[in-house]
Amino acid sequence: MVVREIYLEIPKIGGKILLPQNQHVFHIGKKDIKKSATLSVDPALFSAISSVRKDPKTGSYVKQQFIISLRGDRYYIEDLNSTNGTYLGNLNLKQTTPQLLKNGDKIIVPVEENGTLIQMDLIFHDTTINTPNGSGSSQVEKLNEEPFKDPTIASTVAPPSRSHHSFTDPTQSPTVAPSEESSSGGVYFDPTQAPTVPPVHDPSMAPAYRRRNAIFMDPEDPSFTSNSFILVKRKMPIPPNAFRPDSGLDLGMVYKLEKSETWHILVAFSLLFIMVYHSYINVMGLTALYYYIQYQYFIGISAIFFEPLPIALIFSLSFIVHETAHLQTGKHFHFQSRFCLTTVGMKTTLRSAIIGIPIALPGAAVSVGVDPDDDKDKMGAIKIAGPASNFILGLVFILISLILPGSLSTLKMIFLQGGSLNCVLGTFNMFPGEFKGFALDGKYIKKWKPKYYFILLVLLLLGLVVSILLSSTGQ
C-alpha cells in the first residue's frame, strides 16, 4: 500500500509541519512555525517572521510569511506580503508568481539570532511510503522527478531550479527564474533582504552576508531601523541602475518608484507645506479665539491665514535641504542615491496634512550600497550632512535678518523664524536615542564621532538661543 506524506521539515528547531492532503490552502506564519518547534529555543528567534493577519472588515488575508496551495496533485508556494521576504532556494518569492514545490526544495525565511537576522531553512517533503503489504518493505520514493510545466504559470516563468548554485538576475523581469552571472562579472542578490543569504562558497565571506540591514519595511513590525535617511546595504554587487523598478532591488517601501526624483521632491515639498500651513492655521485660530474671549480683540484674518505661509515655506525648504545634503554626500562617495517618497511616510503625512498636526515626513534620501560596518566614515559623513545643513541654513537666515534694515521688520522676523526653525529641525535630528526601531541621525553621528556630535549640537542650540533672543528684542 502506497501512502503519500507531505510536510515541512525545519531542522533548526526540530520542527515538522504536516500538510494534510484534504486541505487545499495552508497559511504559514510566525505561530505555525513556532508551534512546530521541538527544541528549546529563544522566543525572539521567531520575531522576524510575519504573522498571519486578516483584514477585520473583509476577512481576507493581508499578510503572512507564505502560503502553500494544492493544485491538482501539485503544491505551490507564494509569499503574501511578508515583512522580510521568503525565498525558494535563491528565488525571491516576493517578485514572482506562485512557484512549484518539489521534494527536497529549500524554503528560506528570516529569524533573529543575537540581534542579527539570519536564515532558517524549511525543507519541503513530498514522499510516498510503501507499506509492508505493498512491495514487501518500507521505502521512501521521491516524487516530481520529471520536469513539469504548469499552464497557470506564465510561459516566462521557469520552474524553480533545484540547483543550490544559481542566483536571481535582477536585470531580468521579476517573474523570471534565476539566470546566469551579470555582465559586471558578479552575481546579484536582493540586498534589501538581509536574512535570506545566497550560498557562499568561501566560508570567510559568510558573516558579511548575515549582517542586518537598515530599512523600515513594516510599521506594525519594526524589525529594522527607520530615520530621515534610508540606506540599502550592499550584500552583492549593486546593479548599475539600482532605482529602476526592474533593477531587482526590493524597494517595496518606495511610493511610485517609477516616477522621477523631481516628482518625488515636489510631492514631498507640497505635502509638507500643506501639513505645516494647516497646523499653523489651527494654532493661530485657537490663539485668535483666546484673545477674542479674553480681551474681546480679534487679531484679524490676515494673521490667521497669511502669517503661516512663510513658515510653511521655510519648513518645507529646510526639509528638502536636509535630505539633499544626505543625498549629495552619498553621491560624493559614489553611492547611487536619490530622494524617494515612502509609502508609510506618504500615508502618515497625508493624514497629518488633513488633520493639521505636523508629525510626519513623506520621504527620505536613499543611498544604495552603504554598509554601516565597512563604511563607517562614509556613513557618518552622510548622516552628519543633514543636521549640519540645517545649521548652515539657519545661520544664513539669522545673518540676513541682521543685515535687513529696521523698516523691514516683518521680513526680519520671518528670517529669524527661519533661523530658529532650522536650528530646531537640526537639533531634533541630533537625538541620540532609539524608540521601537526608530532612530534619527544623532544616534549614528554620536557613535561615529562623539566630538563632532557635541560640537554640532552646541552650535545648533546656540543658534536657536540667538534667534529667540533677537526675536524677543525686535532686532
From TrEMBL:
List, alphabetically, the SUPFAM superfamilies matched. SMAD/FHA domain
Q: Where are the transmembrane segments?
A: 263-291, 297-321, 388-408, 414-431, 452-470
The reply on keyword Signal is no
Residue ranges of region Disordered? 151-203
Keyword Transmembrane included in the entry's annotation: yes
Subcellular localization(s) per the UniProt record: Membrane
Q: Where is the composition biased (Polar residues)?
A: 168-185
FHA domain residues are: 26-93
Note the topology in the membrane: Multi-pass membrane protein
Q: Which UniProt keywords apply?
A: Membrane, Transmembrane, Transmembrane helix
Q: Which domain of life is it from?
A: Archaea
Grouped into one coarse class, the protein's main location is membrane
Tell me what this protein is called: FHA domain-containing protein
Q: What is the scientific name of the source organism?
A: Candidatus Lokiarchaeum ossiferum
Lineage, opening ranks: Archaea, Promethearchaeati, Promethearchaeota, Promethearchaeia, Promethearchaeales
